Amino acid sequence: MAVVETHRPGDIKPGRPRARSRSLAAASGIGRFLVIVVLTYLGLLAVTFFIGRVIPVDPVLAIVGDRAPTHVVERTREELGLNKPLIEQFAIYVRNVLTGDLGTSVLTSNRVIDDIRRVFPATLELATLGTLIGAVFGIPLGVLAAVKRDSLVDQIVRVIGLVGYSVPIFWLGLMALLVFYARLGWTDGPGRFDIIYEYTITPVTGILLLDTAMAGEWDAFRNVAGHLILPSALLGYFSLAYISRMTRSFMLNELGQEYIVAARAKGISESRVIWRHALRNAAVPLVTVIVLSYAGLLEGSVLTESVFAWPGLGLYITNSLQNADMNAVLGGTIVVGSVFIGLNLLSDLLYRFLDPRTKRR
């Protein structure tokens, strides 16, 4: 006679269904995240593709010239696939971009991806230093403005931020060159370094402060740092204006919470309440602000690089646009857009990681 096993309700382990549901929720969240990434990137590729098709510059004539024979123009158009239906052209465009083929630059005759590898470290170095300056000075200023709300200190910090938002960055750059370089001689001028160091600096990472320090070329290091001061300070001021304003807003919100009142009632020192309690909670959204500010400097340093003749991605795109080199323009736009999407997604992940409340959603 078969023995039928029976289980009482208490014998069933409740952890397994709960763990399975958590795994399914995590997998669903990852799936949604990947779908958002793919759709966002396809949208970026679609925008750059159709921009390249609606602009009044014929990419074929930009390659072969205005006086090329008709049969040469038609053969080049066929080789580039521009005689195919638009949807097929877009499919080819997506395939090429995903394989790293951004076309060939008419201006330099190099592959666009190779040109971008050469110029992007300069933009990365400038934007990174500018973000560090903005965070190091912007966060304390924002905290101070929130603590001294409506005081003279608060008004000064708000005016500093307002000027950073309102005054055109290219005008500030020109004034900085005129005052600190041309008149006072406190800093070096445009470019990344003086011409005498062109053959003494061996680019390894492309970030010259790091390359010269690793090589022990301290004269070159000081020269590179001297050229970095003005453009990085300018971008740092722009970043400071944004970060200090957001820090002030986050801190005002935290200082009005009940846990701050309770901490003060327990006799905890004011400095600890501000820096250990309020700022710690405000740091969660503040990390997102700093990451997005960094992305903004990476994509928005075109005017700064133009003013200071900084050989980065912004100046490369500007020169390419002036010479109707659309492969380089669109390639640079794709890289900038990809960086912005990546940093935006990174900020979202950091927010979810730092804020436990989002993990339960």
From TrEMBL:
Its main location: membrane. GO terms for cellular component: plasma membrane. It is a multi-pass membrane protein. The chain crosses the membrane at residues 30-51, 126-147, 159-182, 224-243, 278-297, 328-351. It holds the Pfam family BPD_transp_1. InterPro entries: BPD_transp_1_N, MetI-like, MetI-like_sf. Residues 120-351 form the ABC transmembrane type-1 domain. Gene3D superfamilies: MetI-like. GO terms for molecular function: dipeptide transmembrane transporter activity. It is found in: Cell membrane. Keywords: Cell membrane, Membrane, Transmembrane, Transmembrane helix, Transport. PANTHER family: D,D-DIPEPTIDE TRANSPORT SYSTEM PERMEASE PROTEIN DDPB-RELATED (PTHR43163:SF8), DIPEPTIDE TRANSPORT SYSTEM PERMEASE PROTEIN DPPB-RELATED (PTHR43163). Belongs to the binding-protein-dependent transport system permease family. This is Peptide/nickel transport system permease protein.
